[in-house]
Amino acid sequence: MATEKKQRKTEDENREFKVEWTEAFAFTQNLNGLPTCLICQETLAHNKKSNVERHFTTKHVSFSVNYPVGEARKKAVEELRKSQEKPPSVFSYRMQSSNNVNIASFVVSQEIAKRGKPYTDGEYIKSCFIKASEELFRDFKNKADILRKIKELPLSAKTVKDRTVKMSSNITDQQVEDLKLASALSIAVDKSCHINDTAQVSLFVRFISPTGPKEELLGLLPLKGQTRGEDIANAVIECIEKHHIPIDKIVSVSTDGAESMTGVRNGFVAILKEKISHEILTYHCILHQEALCVQTFPEEICKVMELVINIIKSIITKALHHRQFQEFLFEMESEYADLLLHNRVRWLSRGNVLKHFAFLLTEVKAFLLEKGVHYPELSDDQWIQKFYFMVDVMSHLNQLNRNLQGKGNTIFSMLEEVISFENKLSLFAQDFERETLIHFPSLLKHRQESNSDIDICYFKTTLLNMREAFLHRFQEFRDSKATLAFVKKPLDASVTELNFSPFNIDIGDFEMQLLDLKNKELWSSKFVRLCADMEILEKNKCELSARHRWSALKDLEKEDMLIFNTWNSIPDSYHQLKKLAFAVLSLFGSTYLCEQSFSSMNLIKSRLRNRLIDENLESYLKLKTTTYKPDLPKLSKEMQGHCSH
């Protein structure tokens, strides 16, 4: 039987560094006996002449030309050796030390900004750091040196503010650099006022960078005067032109659907379209449309919600009653320790308020009876039916809302969620028609406990009316469905169903490339694997949602990143397909990020910090929302180190 041939290993060949390589290729031997380049300091894995020679001839061509073999090369190499053997001077040591202090100052300032804390927290953090270090490094011989370095850390309020502005500017430079390389971008625009009643326009851009999809705050634009569509358009266009981003790269815009945004003649979108030389897609935020559909509840059901809010207010807003109610719940060993107060701004608030009230309804009745407060509706079976119906419906709507929110969702997936919910509403109506109430557990429990006759026709009609509202909305998403689906299912795409007008696609080349992709298993199989990966992702989402582990959902890989990685692995010979895929992948389906930035804005610029100027507010928000990392070594070298003040 033939013996297996032993694979040769370079470490078994006893190769050694050759002295002549120093002059010939500018290499020296490090402490581990491996060849190290004197020019770029790169260390090679093996003492092999061919590796050394290849490194020198490919990476240091200019050195080879400027210093030919002979006396010139020998002298240049000797100078390189001397410069590396020379110990660092006291001046260079101090410069490096100062640079490290500056970088540390930037790091702390960045953390302060990301958490929306005041600039003055810098000195507080420094004080804590010093006191903790006195104990932490008590047994260290160089304790005094460590404490001196910490005390040199510049973290005054002014320093933290300056560092924040510099980091924000650096991130903007990185954003603009990638935006100029992108073939297409989309914008999401929304408007809100902060505590000083100054209108702020939040401008987010979505594009495909070399590393994947990006959703970035390009600017927080203050409007000092009026807030007409013309004013919003001027601010947005000025911001884009200020950064020298070609405005024709915009392929879509998403807004909240307000009149100033969507007005036919003077709306922001209409004015923006005039500035762009091609057709663009316009979307009314899918979350806002969903919220408008919910408003189709009949007036009687809306009054149920109003009464619930009034009862909660009567308990929570009176300090004594609130304390007594909490103590009452503790004595009753209730599942919840308190009621929730409704917040109209928060999308999920209404459902959570109703859920808590439903669980505590018995305790609320008992507490109100003890206080001599009487609400006849709480004993009315028709009112109770409407209340439990609303609890269950809002639970389903909250689930839809969670699926539509967050980063990394593609616009096609959001549309699928809406269409799925439309069909669920038909199923819910059938559930009432069969009188099974499988999907309405709160109402079913009430029927079983009180033996009530449920008003089947009333609730069924309510659900069908809501479904009609859903069907009449989201039209712009439905019209683009085939184009939106292309990023996930290019193998099912038909050229006649796709909308190419916003994307500058050569249809002839696109047809040929699509046909080629479909018939080559090497590339088409990648999209089969993509579907399998997305199935796993969706399964993990469902499992985490079922266990109410909402924070863990953020750690899962994003759907748009899975799609990007698949398309990025396709060769550039399919450039027209990739161009369309990346353009569609860059579309915004909602203004969720704008709304989220306004929540952060109101936390940062609060009643206690109402003097924060617009430039600094924008810097805060940019550092809080960005996925880019500021180039701290570069920023540190650009400034002169100084001690704390």
Automatic annotation (TrEMBL):
Pfam families: Dimer_Tnp_hAT. PANTHER family: DUF4371 DOMAIN-CONTAINING PROTEIN (PTHR45913:SF10), EPM2A-INTERACTING PROTEIN 1 (PTHR45913). This is HAT C-terminal dimerisation domain-containing protein. It comes from the Eukaryota. The lineage of its organism: Eukaryota, Metazoa, Chordata, Craniata, Vertebrata. Residues 556-621 form the HAT C-terminal dimerisation domain.
